[in-house]
Amino acid sequence: MSERLYGILLDSFWKILLPGLKMTIPLSAISFSLAMVIAVVMALIQFANIRILKHLARFYIWVIRGTPLLVQLYVIFFGLPGIGIVLDPFLSAVIVFSINEGAYGAEIIRAALESVPKGQMEAGYCVGMSYLQIMRRIVLPQALRTAFPSLSNSLIAMVKDTSLAANITVTEMFMATQRIVARTYEPLALYCEVGLIYLMFSTILTKLQRVGEKKLDFYGYQGGKS
Amino acid sequence: MIEVKGIRKSFGSTEVLKGVDLYVEKGDVIAILGPSGSGKTTFLRCMNFLETADEGSMTFDKETYNLGHISKKDIGKIRRKTAFVFQNFNLFLNKTALENVTEGLIVARKMKRSQAEAMGKRALDKVGLSDRYYHYPHELSGGQQQRVAIARALAAEPEIIYFDEPTSALDPELIGEVLEVMRDLAGEGMTMLVVTHEINFARNVSTKVIFMEEGRILEEGKAQDFFENPKEERTRDFLRLVSREQTKAGI
Ligand SMILES: Nc1ncnc2c1ncn2[C@@H]1O[C@H](COP(=O)(O)OP(=O)(O)OP(=O)(O)O)[C@@H](O)[C@H]1O
Ligand SMILES: [Mg+2]
């Protein structure tokens, strides 16, 4: 490796990692948190079979899962100004990522809710608990345990997908890399470098997922088994 | 204490309960026998509103309710005086044995945690699980799980406990420990309504036996009379069949 290239890679490592820490991580963290709120609400609406809301939830999930993330980003960032709604890039990205991930998360959590053995609801009623108490204290904790591995996987997928935000001028890691490439003309090395940094992030998250699963395993409950 | 009259229940176009009447006195241990599909479970579930009966009335502690149009509030009121033990235990899988027992006390009855735990421990001691307070359901045998479920039922000091085939999901060697707990409860005067296939339990522990068939009560009587002089031909056939099967299974 030439000394020049080595210098570029070393120098750019921090210039890529910094936006990673300042943009990619906050963007992922905020979006995923909001997505989980949306997902739990949408899953519960369907699980509880609330009449009109249920159709709205299905419609939302259908639209979001059926259209590309990139298109959704364009609609919000480039499209909405057409009707007078101008949002800054970061906020647009947060909105799109949380709405997008919320739809996928809703499906994961709904399936997990359905895998919780039903008899526990009846047992809850028999000891005088209300529907909401049973959901909050018995069913939802078990469902979230079941859903945890899948949700962790989608968090990892989302961290990688935040690179798409470069398209709407969010200066996250990928955008930072593109800028350096434009200056140095070393696309192969630099894109591989940013890839490695994403890999690093994913690896850390996977490790955290393992730890989380161990922690949650304290009651040994595996979804679907009664 | 409880009187129900004319309970009817259909699922779609099949009528599963065709007018069931029952009178329960305090301290009664009533065994409900009958072939599979005769409506025993459905009847018990209607008693505790896990199913809504289409018709019928219930008098509980001198208050009469129309089972076809009962309010949520009345359901809650009756449920406070009753408890249910399921065939499949239905323990809360994310809660320890003790939490299973205290959950309803703390969450539904707003009892202080310390008081609930004291009551919960007492209930678990009673079913012989003083060394299993902090075990999760998956760490317990089927017999132990069912005993936790009985402790959960006991903890709220109900006036009656409904049991739906409490030993049917258990390995044969674990049935004894559960029946023993139930026998003790009966001995202490707990009012119980027990759907069971355990003829010996019905014969030796219950005060009254009911034989159901096709959604009706075909025969009922004191346990001794019922087993010694069954009146109905169908009852005799059933008893013969069951005792032959249980001898064969070595129960
Ligand atoms: N939720 C339901 N939907 C439709 N049919 C039902 C439902 N529950 C019970 N049934 C039907 O009602 C009839 C009576 O069922 P039930 O479970 O009360 O019988 P059982 O006497 O408890 O039988 P077993 O000894 O097998 O437990 C059966 O024919 C059953 O198929
Ligand atoms: Mg049954």
Could you provide a short overview of the structure?
The complex is a heterodimer of chains A (226) and B (251). Chain A has 226 residues and is an all-alpha fold.
What is the CATH class of chain A?
A: Mainly Alpha
In N-to-C order, the SSE pattern of chain B is EEEHEEHEHHHEHEHEEHH
Average pLDDT reading of chain A: 93
Lateral strand order in the biggest sheet of chain B? 6-7-8-3-9-10
Element order of chain A: H for helix, E for strand: HHHHHHHH
Largest sheet of chain A: none
Estimate percent helicity of chain A. over 70%
Mean pLDDT of chain B: 92
- Bound small molecules, which ones? adenosine-5'-triphosphate, magnesium ion
> What structural class results from the helix and strand content of chain A?
mainly alpha
Q: What is the CA-CA span between the terminal residues of chain A?
A: 59 Å
Describe the structure.
The complex is a heterodimer of chains A (226) and B (251). With 226 residues, chain A is an all-alpha fold. Chain A has a single domain, classed as MetI-like fold (Orthogonal Bundle). Chain A is built from 8 helices and no strands. Chain A has helices spanning 3-47, 51-65, 69-79, 89-115, 119-126, 131-161, 173-184, 187-216. By secondary structure, chain B is of the alpha/beta class. Helix content of chain B is 40%, strand content 25%. Chain B has 9 helices and 10 strands. A 6-stranded mixed β-sheet of chain B has the order 6-7-8-3-9-10, with helices on both faces. In chain B, strands 2-1-4-5 form a 4-stranded antiparallel β-sheet, covered by helices on one side. In chain B, helix 3 (97-108) packs across helix 4 (113-126), helix 3 runs parallel beside helix 5 (142-155) and helix 5 (142-155) runs parallel beside helix 6. The relative contact order of chain B is 0.17. At the A-B interface, helix 5 and helix 6 of A face strand 6 and helix 3 of B.
Write the layout of secondary structure elements.
The complex is a heterodimer of chains A (226) and B (251).
Chain A: H1 3-47, H2 51-65, H3 69-79, H4 89-115, H5 119-126, H6 131-161, H7 173-184, H8 187-216
Helix pairs in contact in A: 1-2, 1-4, 1-7, 1-8, 2-4, 3-4, 4-6, 5-6, 6-8, 7-8
Chain B: E1 2-11, E2 14-24, E3 29-33, H1 40-47, E4 55-60, E5 63-66, H2 72-79, E6 82-85, H3 97-108, H4 113-126, H5 142-155, E7 160-164, H6 172-187, E8 191-195, H7 199-204, E9 208-213, E10 216-222, H8 223-228, H9 233-248
Parallel strand pairs in B: 3-8, 3-9, 6-7, 7-8
Antiparallel strand pairs in B: 1-2, 1-4, 4-5, 9-10
Helix pairs in contact in B: 3-4, 3-5, 4-5, 5-6
Adenosine-5'-triphosphate binds next to helix 1 of chain B.
